[in-house]
Structure prediction request, 688 residues.
Amino acid sequence: MTAAPPTKPATRTMTMVAAINDALAIALERDPAVHVFGEDVGVMGGVFRATDGLQARFGAQRVFDTPLAEAGIVGMGVGMGLAGLRPVAEIQFAGFLYPALDQVLSHVGRYRHRTRGRYHVPMVVRAPYGGGVHTPEQHADSPEAILAHVPGVKVVIPSTPTDAKGLLLAAIEDPDPVFFFEAIKLYRSTKEEVPEGHYTIPLGKARVVTEGDDVTVITYGGMVDVSRKAADAARAHGIGVEVIDLRTITPLDTETVLASVRKTGRAVVVTEAPRTGGYHSEIAAVIAEEAIDALLAPVVRVTGFDAPYPPFTSIEDTYRPNPARVARAIKQVMAY
Amino acid sequence: MTTNSTADLLQVLNEHGEVVRPDLLPDASTLTMLYRAMRRIRHFDERAVVLHRQGRMGVFPPYGGMEASQAGTALALTPEDWLLPTYRDTGAALAYGLPVSTTVAYWRTSPHGWAMPEHLKVLPFYIPIATQYPHAVGCAVAEARQGTQNVAMAYIGDGGSSEGQFHEALNFAGALNAPCVFILQNNGWAISVPTRTQTRATNLSKRADGYGIPGVRVDGNDIIAVYHAASEAVARARRSEGPTLIETVTYRVKPHTVSDDPSRYRTEDLTREWEAKDPVVRLAAYLRAQKLWDDAHEDALQSEIVEEFEAAVREADTYPEPSPTEILDHVFAEPTPQLRAQGEELRREVNA
Ligand SMILES: Cc1ncc(C[n+]2csc(CCOP(=O)(O)OP(=O)(O)O)c2C)c(N)n1
Prediction:
């Protein structure tokens, strides 16, 4: 009798970048329509190695380097999507998405609507975003609010390896265009047991990170970890903080947000984007519209500043919200 | 199909140290001036990498091996002309006149590196690709409209020339007869992507044809040829004869930045071939053969350069770290009420 085959572990320890790589490999494996492309994604496997090994495994037709032209990358993706493929484009840094904004604003989100459903663009655009790792100018931008403002596109921003994998697979399988922002700070700083094989996490469903009765902190992406630390500190002072990780900002899971705010009566919204006109303001507005009766204090936003993200290493941490700033906001809404 | 074919390539001093265009050979003092400029910026490149390893410099994109392409173009300008360099063009900015201390500060991520000197028209290194090309057209058109003879020189890489804004700028410049000199440094790579993956075109100077402007292809490791082509283009622009695109054919022998690992995408055979075409060594050999240069000259230049750079680094060492509220400075001429409030908030936090 031979020994029983070793049972495959159901999970594997992964960083977020490894989880993204895994999701891309699974998508490429499952669906021949999936194509991965962008600057440096092929031979080099991406500047963050998110596409490492994919070209060797799936060939240069499915995984390829493009010319350095973001409008070209996104615009070509639109055409590929219209014509039956599932393009998964990478923009090297979210701050370099700007040359492609014409395509995004003029076309990406409009095709289904402007053809009364005849055509649609099942495209995913992945882009690393955010600060905390001392990058040069324009590499640390958080432009998610710009995208979230465009009708017809979805915006997904994971905060854990498990979520990154499941949400990316859901995004790739989604029939509509999805922007998928990956916090650079999280690529390698968190590791966890990630389920093996294919699974999806539905878009538009927030995750309650920690439960609490006194304050709701609503955030996503690179700020989840920061907020969780602030919540831990507050808990030590007897304040119960419920941290909600939105996971997708459009569609927004208003139900989870409002249920929590109705329970706690206080809300702090945390992002690392500039203050004015950010997505945090949208969340605050939704709370004001739907749950004003439940509020015991005004909604407080913790954000970056109305200035470009500073590339000055020694003061970068001043711009990007840290746990202490979130903790002060929690205190502020408690003291109101 | 070779990417860097020598057809149509302007050369004065070829890689074997032979003068192939004696008619274009400048006088001895120009030759030594060109050499000194290359040696000076090479020193910066080498020092920057060392400073980075010591933790005294941030991410730095080296330009070593491209000194001829950078110095040869920037030296064709006067301080009245505009220079729009990319992150790769520290050498060009230094040759144009940007103080070494400012440059060190820039790559140390200090706001002092953003304080562009009043007596020059140089803009901070452009990090987003190709976005500076339309600015150069604007600067050039503005100079022309204001009746000056000043020109604008903008840099881009082979990769950057794939961006739409590169093409828009060339078209605008032609249509508006802008006094612009477009430098396209074809160094073979856009991070990991070789030029042949970037484009099917094998002669990037020909892109100028599509916009009705002159395109020149020059040996980017031959500073005599580069300087000649750039000076001609600048002169043409000053005579109101419009823009020129200059492709300098060179090679990025160094990594993309100090944190890049080129072994992931290339073998070093071709790099070694290009190292043999080193622009600094090439001109040194020629100058020595002509008895225009010797060890004594070299030693004197070396100590001059070392002294200049050490003094600049010492000066940059004295620049204080920015204060937290500096992140809010210079967003508008007058801070908005929102920025004022955010400044207050920051001050409270810093003091908390
Ligand atoms: C708009 C934009 N997209 C992407 C990047 C990221 N990036 C930085 S350098 C680079 C390659 C540039 O290659 P090339 O233009 O040939 O210039 P080189 O670095 O070789 O001098 C890329 C893709 C960027 N800085 N800006």
Summary: Chain A has two domains: 11-195, 207-335. The interface with chain B takes residues 39-40, 42-45, 47, 65, 67-72, 95-96, 98-99, 134-139, 275-276, 305-308, 310-315, 318-319, 325, 328 of chain A (CB under 8 Å). The pocket of thiamine diphosphate is lined by residues A 39, 68, 70, 92, 96, 99; B 88, 127-129, 157-160, 187, 189-191, 252, 256 (CB under 6 Å).
